[in-house]
Amino acid sequence: MSLCSGAVDSTNSAGDVSGYVVQAANLTVHGDFVVPGEAPVPDAAAGTWDARLPAEVESLLRAQVAAATELPYRLPGARRPSLATVYVRQDLGAGTEEQPEQPRETPVLDGRSGLVEVVPRPVTRPSVRPPTHTVREALDRDDHLIVVGGPGQGKSTLSRRLSAEAAGRWFTTTDEPLTEPVIPIRVSATELAARLHLPFTQSLADSVHNEYGAYLATPLAPSALHHRVAGCRWLLLVDGLDEVADAGDRDRLVAVLAAWSAPGSPYRVILTTRPLEGAALAPLQRSGATRYELQPFDEAALTAFAHSWFTDTPDSAPRFLRQIRDAYLGEMVTVPLLATIAAIIFTEHGDRPLPDNKYELYEAYLRYLRTTKSPQFDSIRDSLLEHLGRVRLESDTPLVEAAKTWVTTHLSPTGEWEEALLAYLTSVGPLTRPRQGGNLRFLHHSFAEHLAATADARQLPTPFTPPHDAFRRLLHAARDEERGHHARAVLLHYCRLNPTEADPVLVHLHEGDATAHLLAARLLAGHIPATAPPVDAFLDTARAWAMTTGLGGRRILSQVSRASHHPLLVSWLTGLSRDVAAPWPSRIEAATALATRLRGEQASEAVELLRMVVNDPSAQVTDRLAAAEALCDCGTDEQATAECGLRAILVHPGADEVDVRNAAVVLATFGSASRARAVEVLVTVIESPLASDAARFVAAAGLARFDTDSHQ
């Protein structure tokens, strides 16, 4: 899978593995560890791609190729695209070692009956974006991978495509997806986690049988999984760790995978997951797995996506992209799943504009699905779907069992209702049933999250009453940065279901402390349907925060700058960017929002401000780096200025080792000459007898992000 940065391959020679267009996503990894992993050691005993395999192994390989044409998550309304080339790049900053959790203060009630929590200062991480590597480069470099990505970014697509391509290589002469001949075996984390009471090879074999069913020509015996096959290791792809509802089961699965990735094991392990809080992945990282993170669509990829999608009506692609810009959806549709849903809704709506927020986009798609009518089940459709969303989030109970139990509790069904119910659910909801007799699955986990948030929001009372126990607990949970995603979604859904309550929610948070202000800013970023007066009042407070230099003020400003639904946001940001009394980080954030997200009439002025900062040798190095990164997102016309600024940072006397490392990592994305310069600077630091051990360590870690030779 060779590729050029930013390119989309629309003629995938490995064959057309179907699914929705999220498979066209660019995939990248932003390094998230301090010490780079070792490159796989060539194995003299390894087999070859033309080795003869046992019949049961061939059966498994063919089953994975066949299953990949059906799964994952094929959205009704989506076209069957050819797959794009996939990118990966390493994350910066987190480290493979276990990160200790910071102590939390005991929550107390404030004078307004609100729960108060002292939130620890978050660990500041650089936002620099290292160069991309192909999936093959990552697989040839590291034995074991952890691929992290947000909802809808293509984790399942990657695992299925990789298993299908590796399996298909045994039957064709196409390019191999990695150098080492391997036997792929892909299973879902939920299947494997449900069987950890069994010996590992038995649990794996049972998971394969349940996953692929009739696709298998012959059963796979557990004994076949004890050792290599024809000298080849197994490439074990475990998809969706985050979808295992029980935290204890997740932790145990990670520990088991870590044990089976030890030196001498017949397995190479690739685990996909959403970001998880705490040290859940630490055992696998300590065993040598390297963390990768999926990259969302950039502007070039979104354009390629649009032209790929609307091949039958070429004039639709520019109209679709124009509607994306008009609705300020650019940042949201960097997630491939949401880009796909937006394309479906654009086609369905005709000349009507796209929704300008995630809630309405999901709701529009759910309405699109509701075409089938059933006198027996229509009255309980929404309640049942929302219940199944909660079940999926809160437990690993099979959805078929949950649906039948709920219906018998709330209805008195007659006749052969069970199969009729399952057929109805797959017709009107974001659900699929891969085979007859199989379990129900959500088309994507994010649909379960959306429905569960709606279900929880419906249970909240009206009017909004902050002292009410349900609201106190919800507002407390929503403040937590990592664990508060669902609670914040419930608040947004509550305000969407009860629009008149949006103003009281925003006013209450505005009257609170700094963490309440940050929560209010996050709700504004999610387009809470509040009216202009309370939003304008909060913007006045946000302006006061922007005039400070603390981390809290920058976080509030970063969220408020995404409230693109508010008609006065552009003038508010423009005023802040022009305010010479404001701290430069605030002015740069305002200019970045105007230049990269809103892109209206003030964009050119914002770009000029960013250029000025990049070219100003007296500016703080961190400010110049932030402005250079923003210019990288303003299109190719601004990249020369960004590149020049990054080169200047490398030799700036005020730049510390982290500044130099970050500038070098970003500079390396600009081509061979810039990459060579970045390597030269970091190598000079590493070899300098005057550099401290800390500076040499930071430089070496940065060099490892983009210079493959540094691993040798």
From TrEMBL:
Residues 92-112 are annotated as: Disordered. Pfam families: NACHT. This is NACHT domain-containing protein. Gene3D superfamilies: P-loop containing nucleotide triphosphate hydrolases (3.40.50.300). Residues 143-275 form the NACHT domain. InterPro entries: NACHT_NTPase (IPR007111), P-loop_NTPase (IPR027417). Signal peptide: none annotated.
